[in-house]
Request: fold
Amino acid sequence: MSELRFPDGFVWGAATAAYQIEGSARDDGRGPSIWDTFSRTPGKVQAGHTGDVACDHYHRYADDVALMAELGLKAYRFSIAWPRIQPDGTGPVEPRGLDFYDRLTDALLDRGIDPIVTLYHWDLPQALEDRGGWTNRETAEHFAAYATAVYGRLGDRIRTWTTLNEPWCSAYLGYGNGVHAPGVRDAGAAFAAVHHLLLGHGLAARALRAAGAEVVGITLNPADVQPANPASAADAAAVRLVDGLQNRIFLDPLTGAGYPADVLEHVSRMVEPTFIRDGDEKLIAAPIDLLGINYYSPTYVAGRPDGAGGGAYPGTEGAVEFLPSTGSLTEMGWTIEPAGLTRLLERLAADYPGLPLMITENGGAFPDRAGEAGPDGGPGQVVDADRIAYLDGHLRAAHEAVARGVDLRGYLVWSFLDNFEWAEGYLKRFGIVHVDYLTQRRTPKSSARWYQEVISRNGL
Ligand code: FCB
Reply:
C-alpha cells in the first residue's frame, strides 16, 4: 500500500475517561456518581462489574504516563471526575480531587504530552441526579460552576478544554432507553436532557473563555447515517429523521443556527419543549474552536411504517428500521466501515464550515488473546492484528478526508488502556495496551507498537 503522510503538527494521541480507568471510587473525598449507583444495580452492567478498581490509574498514573511517553503519544485526552471535585455536585471544592489532576497534568507536561481535558464524560454526581440530573435546568448552571473551578486550578497549564463527551449518549442512553446511567426510560426526559446538556456546554464554554481558556470545544458522536436503498424516498426520510435526532439537534444549535424546525416538530409530538427558554439558543451558540468527533461505525436505516425504530431514537418506532450490522464486525457487533469516517468528516466540513475537527475517539474491541505467559508469569505478547487493521483502515479514511480538504487537526485512539466499557463491564477490550485486571500489569499490544511507528513517521 502507498505511503501516507499527515499534515505537519498533526496531533497523535490516545483517550480514556475517568470512571473507566481511575478506580479509587471512594478515595480522597470523591462523592458517588450515577455510574457507581448504576453499576451496583443488579442487571445493569455485565457480570456486575463496577468502576471501583478499574485500571487503578488513580495510583498508577505516573507509570501510565511513562508508558504513553514510551509510545510517543503527543497528546492524551482524559476526563475529570466531577464527583472528585465537588462530591455533591455543587458547593465546596475538594482540593484532594483537584490535586490528582494537578499531578497528572504535570506528569504529562514533564514528558511533553499535551493534556486534552474533557470536563464531563458521564459521571454525574449522584446528588445532582437525586434532583433530576440533566432533566433539571439547574444542572447546567452547576456544570459551568464546576468547569470554572477546574479551570481555576489547571488553566495555567492546560490549553484544550472540552466540555462534554457525547451528549447523545448521556441524554438518549441515560434518560431515553436506560441502557446507561441513570437508567431512566422516558422520551421527554431524554429531550430535556439534550437541551440542558447543550445549555451546560454553552454556559461552561462561555465561562472558560472568560477565564482565559485558549481552545474550547465539545466532543460529539455524530453518525454517518446512510439509507438502505439510496433510491428510496422513504429511506431518505428515515435518514433525515435519524440525522436530525443524532446530528442536527446538537450541531445546529452549537453553531448558531438554533434547533432545526423538523426536529422540534418531531420532539413536540412526544413532549412540549417548555424547557427551551428564550435566549437559550444564543447561550448554546457560544463560539467553539474545536469539534471533537468520536466515530466507530456507520448507521444504516430504512423508512418503514412497521419499523421497530430504535430505543435510543425516541419517536422512530413505526417509521424507521435500523439495519442489523453486516460484514466484518468488532466484538461490540459494530460494522467495520472506514469509508463512513471519510463521509462523516466531509459532511461536517461541508455543512458546518470553519470548524476545526479532531477525531477524539476511534478504535475497536476485539477478543484479544494474550500469548504464552512470559517467564515471570505475566502475559506474553498480545497480537491484535484485527485492531491494527481497524486502525489502519480508519487512519487511511481520515487521511482521505484531509486530502479532500477537511481541516482535521488530530487523531486520538480509543483507548490507551483496556478499561470499564460501561454496560459491557470489563468484557470488552478497546485498549492498545492490555490490562491484566488481577495484577494491574500493563502490556502494550502489537497495535501499540504499530501506533508508535505511525506516530514517529507521522503517517502510514
Ligand atoms: C464511546 C465512549 C467511550 C467508549 C467508547 C467505546 O461512546 O465515549 O467512553 O466507551 O464509546
